[in-house]
């Protein structure tokens, strides 16, 4: 019996570790999880295209028009999705040589915090405004990524969302939702 082989508790047979499986016996999806991300990017690109097609463009809109930048972003998303898919198909990730039955895990707490922060941002954007909802989003993401300095994170999130508000307002002439602070800075 090989030193690396282990008895499988379920069947009593020998379980093979990834490095013991011959190269040709790995499934197609082994090392190609990047195709899922490429698919998600392509779906986002398709969603952007649908939004561009159904966008109401005023007749007096000047060239390049309000669809110019969304078209550029949609093209970039499709190009990135295609490049990621080609790279993943050409060079799949190598099978890790792990000892025993090591498993990867998903940090559901962090994922839930990012998702909850984004959902709160989407729901609170109009009623409370950009400044507060964006600061909440930035704070939630920083907590999910492991920051343990809540007061510093809140301050930095407020500064960051304020800078974006100024860039959109002063630099681009666009107004982000003011919400409850509408009369103060809107």
UniProtKB/TrEMBL annotation:
Transmembrane segments: 35-55, 67-86, 113-139, 151-172
UniProt keyword list: Membrane, Transmembrane, Transmembrane helix
Pfam families: TctB (PF07331)
Region Disordered, residue ranges: 1-25
Species in which this protein is naturally found: Zafaria cholistanensis
Keyword S-adenosyl-L-methionine: no
Domain DUF1468, chain residue ranges per copy: 36-177
Name assigned to this protein: DUF1468 domain-containing protein
